[in-house]
Amino acid sequence: MLSQQTIDIVKSTAPVLEVHGVAITTVFYKNLFEAHPELLNIFNHANQSKGRQQTALANAVYSAAVHIDNLAAIIPAVKQIGQKHVSLGIKPEHYPIVGEHLLGAIKEVLGDAATDDIINAWAEAYGVIADAFIGIEEEMYVASESKQGGWRFFKDFIVVHKEKESENITSFYLKPADGNMLPTYEPGQFITIRVSVPGEKYLLNRQYSLSKASDVETFRISVKKEDEHDPAGKVSVHLHNNVNVGDTLELSAPAGEFSLDVEKTTPVTLISGGVGITPMMSMFETIAKNQPSRKVSFIYSARNENLHPFDKDIRSLMETMEDAEYVSLYSDEGDGFITKELLATHAIQSGDVYICGPVGFMEAMINHLLELGYTNEQIHYEFFGPALQLELVQA
């Protein structure tokens, strides 16, 4: 338990962290990687270069300061971040290293304003928060490896099939190199791929949604080929251009809290844009196989027909379902956007809604739904990177 003095000091620093949070986390990552370059094998370099990771960490530190007297309030966020950590192979021994450099960055940025009392209070608070992360992540690791076919950290997989789904999306079917069966996973979850890319000094990690229903034979990921000059595109370009059938990739076990509630029988609306369709394919196929009478509305937007993956697959699955609707739009055609009016007609008011796509797309979709009277509890969404704050209307 934290002392009241520590709680008071940490809460009093929250406004300062709100102002200087990104500066602190930017210094933190710079110093961390200078002292421990081996950690570059874990962190997503693209998110670092775009400032996403710095902003996400600043938001997390600020939230911890605000809620330091009631840490139970941030447990949902800890679990969400913990899912990402487990998929990257974060270990307990990483936390003291992070703590040392986070405190050092606070001192460096705030200077004399970071008194010994403030640094000591934050050191004590960080220890409690780190213990919460370590405990929750250990539970996740144990749950993952205790499944039939489960494992901890990374494991070798063989590419057994490669299929072009659209002009810019290719699917990779992956089978365990040891020949074991796969663990089951929740529709909507993701895996992390860790690769060595020619010309890169450190390993690169990227998280990809599993894009088909769970089975014991293969995973499928469906990867959009990004711009070759974009830091975020290094892994996707490598997979598209250099990884072929018979090659080996390292994968983490499935993780993530964005998943279809398969216990419910109530209606479901799936809304996605671009490559955000991938977790929806897992959800839709799962419903088709296990709950063919469940009411579903699948709403999807792509730029044009050439960039539209899985169209035939969706239509084929619909033939096995009793009450499924499918709406696809192309933004290049001018009126092919998912508007509030379209959602009012095709989204199902009485059920849950799952959304995946670019951040701006998700903001628009969630705001439309809130304005239409959907509750926050009905709306579920997934990010492609660190959990940045969305600009949402108040429900």
TrEMBL record:
Origin superkingdom: Bacteria
GO molecular function: FAD binding; heme binding; metal ion binding; nitric oxide dioxygenase NAD(P)H activity; oxygen binding; oxygen carrier activity
Database matches in PROSITE patterns: FAD_FR, GLOBIN
EC number(s) from the headed UniProt entry: 1.14.12.17
Keyword annotations: Detoxification, FAD, Flavoprotein, Heme, Iron, Metal-binding, NAD, NADP, Oxidoreductase, Oxygen transport, Transport
Keyword presence, Flavoprotein: yes
Cofactor(s) required for function per UniProt: FAD; heme b
Active-site residues (renumbered): 95, 137
Record site: Involved in heme-bound ligand stabilization and O-O bond activation: 29
Reaction catalysis annotation: 2 nitric oxide + NADPH + 2 O2 = 2 nitrate + NADP(+) + H(+); 2 nitric oxide + NADH + 2 O2 = 2 nitrate + NAD(+) + H(+)
InterPro entries in UniProt: Cbr1-like_FAD-bd_dom, FAD-bd_FR_type, Flavoprot_Pyr_Nucl_cyt_Rdtase, FNR_nucleotide-bd, Globin, Globin-like_sf, Globin/Proto, Hmp
Site description Influences the redox potential of the prosthetic heme and FAD groups, residues in chain: 84, 382
Binding site for FAD: 206-209, 383-386
Region span, Reductase: 149-395
Family stated for the protein in its record: Belongs to the globin family. Two-domain flavohemoproteins subfamily.
Role played: Is involved in NO detoxification in an aerobic process, termed nitric oxide dioxygenase (NOD) reaction that utilizes O(2) and NAD(P)H to convert NO to nitrate, which protects the bacterium from various noxious nitrogen compounds. Therefore, plays a central role in the inducible response to nitrosative stress.
HAMAP family found in the cross-reference section: Hmp
Written domain comment of the UniProt record: Consists of two distinct domains; an N-terminal heme-containing oxygen-binding domain and a C-terminal reductase domain with binding sites for FAD and NAD(P)H.
UniProt-recorded name of the protein: Flavohemoprotein
Organism: Psychrobacillus vulpis
Lineage: Bacteria, Bacillati, Bacillota, Bacilli, Bacillales
